[in-house]
Design brief:
Blueprint (H helix, E strand, L loop, with lengths): L1 H21 L5 H14 L4 E11 L2 E13 L3 E6 L6 H10 L3 E6 L9 E5 L11 H6 L2
Helix pairs in contact: 1-2
Length: 138
């Protein structure tokens, strides 16, 4: 669990860095490529637009959805560039994987207001320097 907190902390920190340099309002695809490259610079393995299979009533569909980013095969990051995050965005994210996920809205004027962390069975970080992660753990 500690490793997952470290990974999400790196993602949130990278999102803060990118948002502080570029601000809100670009296309999601722009933030996606930049965030992926920033995370790779930090030594994290990142997959973009990866097809994720789903199963329904014994049937397998190889392309149930496409994940914007999958970081270290553990964290799904869904990126948005919308005026406001809705409950529908969070539901979409939970439906995608139901494990550990970050929803980042780069159009928020203040990036901490655009980050939602949706976690199943993961305790909150107890690290002293995890203020950015606590901000998104709502």
């Amino acid at each position: 669990m500690k490793e997952l907190n470290l990974i999400t902390g790196q993602i949130v920190d990278a999102a803060f860095h990118i948002h502080s340099k570029l601000g809100p309002g670009l296309l999601e695809s722009v933030y996606e490529i930049i965030l992926a490259k920033e995370l790779e610079k930090r030594g994290l393995r990142v997959e973009r637009q990866k097809a994720a299979p789903i199963e329904f009533e014994g049937m397998r569909f190889d392309e149930g959805f496409r994940a914007d980013l999958i970081v270290k095969n553990a964290v799904v990051v869904e990126l948005k560039s919308v005026e406001i995050l809705t409950r529908g965005h969070a539901k979409q994210l939970l439906t995608y994987l139901k494990l550990l996920n970050l929803l980042i809205n780069f159009s928020a004027p203040i990036i901490k207001d655009g980050i939602k962390r949706l976690v199943n069975n993961l305790p909150e970080p107890k690290q002293k320097n995890s203020a950015a992660l606590r901000l998104c753990a709502r």
